[in-house]
Amino acid sequence: MIQTSLRHLLSRRVLQRIPFIAAGSSSRRGFSHPSENSSSFADPRPDDERDVNHQGSEAATTISVDRSGLINPIQHCYEPSSDSELVKHLKSIIKFRGGPISVAEYMAEVLTNPKSGFYINRDVFGAEGDFITSPEVSQMFGEMVGVWAMCLWEQMGQPEEVNLIELGPGRGTLMADLLRGASKFEAFTKSLRIHLVECSPTLQKLQSEALKCLDEGNTTGSSTKSAISSLIEAPITWHSAFDQVPSGVPTIVIAHEFYDALPVHQFQRASRGWCEKMVDVTEDSTFRFVLSPQPTPATLLYLMRRLKWAGAEEFTQLEHIEVCPQGMELTEAISKRVGSDGGGALIIDYGQNGIVSDSLQAIRRHKFVSVLDDPGSADLSAYVDFAMVRCSAEEASENVSVHGPITQSEFLGSLGINFRAEALLQSCTEQQAEALRAGYWRLVGDGEAPFWDGPQELAPIGMGTRYLAMAIVNKNQGPPIPFQ
Ligand SMILES: C[S@@+](CC[C@H](N)C(=O)[O-])C[C@H]1O[C@@H](n2cnc3c(N)ncnc32)[C@H](O)[C@@H]1O
């Protein structure tokens, strides 16, 4: 009976649009319309204009902050009396700079501050954490990414040595499922040198456990940690950034939900032109958004760069634009690496194939909260601008071709997730089959779960079309599956 219902489910067209989790509450980086989350501006008092000395990552300059451009304020609540380490740190940056910081700097501190960033000291995934990702939903996700990687390796001519790099591996679940799934293909697994790019020591430890690592130690003379995964006897090395991974060997890069965690600058159209949205502290010590009174260096540099790739019709109607410079730089680095060493990269994330307007969102314990509320206690993420990824990759190297984006449904469906689900069902208990069916539906489905009989507001929502897949590959290899 379960098989019958799975067949029924599988026979549904999977190329549909599906949000990920509970419509009214739960999980992963829920997908409310950006405008629903765009309203975290605070205190738009028009009288509040002052000079600030802005010394962010951009060149220091003096700007005055005009709060009159702020719109649609909402209250956010955290108790100044119980300031966390991170809140104190953010306030001290703003105080000692003498003015607000960019949204990108705020996001970087909140997520990856080495002492108290959101990702640094705890496991944020799963029902007990703040959100759930596809690899945590079903083993089939990592297995299908493994099929993709093996096919690319075939197309590369089965090189004896390959750097398999995962950016932001979370709990290590995707890589563990990929390696388990590939373990019968010895020529492939023997070629693998695995590199994990991860900023969080806590998550590095979980990754080490998931990959059943032995002989963990520090590589002489560096802070790089290395080990052997007993899953396939492959060497694993951890790095804190992509450019630390050694080059000169064909490369396969996997970036699942990594780009959405990279800091974005937010820009807003005002009567005086495009200005930058920034984070400030009020006199009563709460955070709020303010708008720069004139273009900041980031506006001139990053916004102009992004607009260069857009048609006038794409942005003339927009009042807000997000730009992710780290996403541009990372894509350039990946593209150059793949262009010179061979191989390819797979990027799967939620986003859109064009300029992103205003998508920054915060999720704590499976619920949306204000972006400014108790920073460090909630995940921040932003939609990925896949058109930006394409333009950055193509501009960085003539030797790569860019494919997609296609929906996660199309990607997983073309790689054969249906057949994998059917095969797993052959050796399942009734309970396992139910979990498998639900996981399958979440990965490729669209809309609310057809089998859900719980409260409507808690109905799980599929991720099949919210999530998009894009590949950047060396031109010599031809288009990768399933992007042909
Ligand atoms: C949203 S989680 C995705 C985890 C995993 N890929 C998954 O799908 O379950 C983002 C991951 O990237 C890591 N991360 C975020 N920003 C990073 C950065 N700037 N450098 C290195 N790792 C980062 C986080 O610690 C976490 O492992």
Automatic annotation (TrEMBL):
Protein name per its UniProtKB record: Protein arginine methyltransferase NDUFAF7
GO terms of biological process kind: methylation; mitochondrial respiratory chain complex I assembly
Molecular function terms, GO-annotated: protein-arginine omega-N symmetric methyltransferase activity
Protein origin, superkingdom: Eukaryota
Pfam families: Methyltransf_28
Bias-annotated ranges (Basic and acidic residues): 44-53
GO cellular component: mitochondrion
Organism whose genome encodes this protein: Spirodela intermedia (Intermediate duckweed)
Catalytic reaction(s) noted: L-arginyl-[protein] + 2 S-adenosyl-L-methionine = N(omega),N(omega)'-dimethyl-L-arginyl-[protein] + 2 S-adenosyl-L-homocysteine + 2 H(+)
Compartment annotation: Mitochondrion
E.C. no: 2.1.1.320
Function: Arginine methyltransferase involved in the assembly or stability of mitochondrial NADH:ubiquinone oxidoreductase complex (complex I). Acts by mediating symmetric dimethylation of 'Arg-118' of NDUFS2 after it assembles into the complex I, stabilizing the early intermediate complex.
Regions of compositional bias (Polar residues) in chain numbering: 25-41
Signal peptide: none
Catalytic class of the enzyme: transferase
Family: Belongs to the NDUFAF7 family.
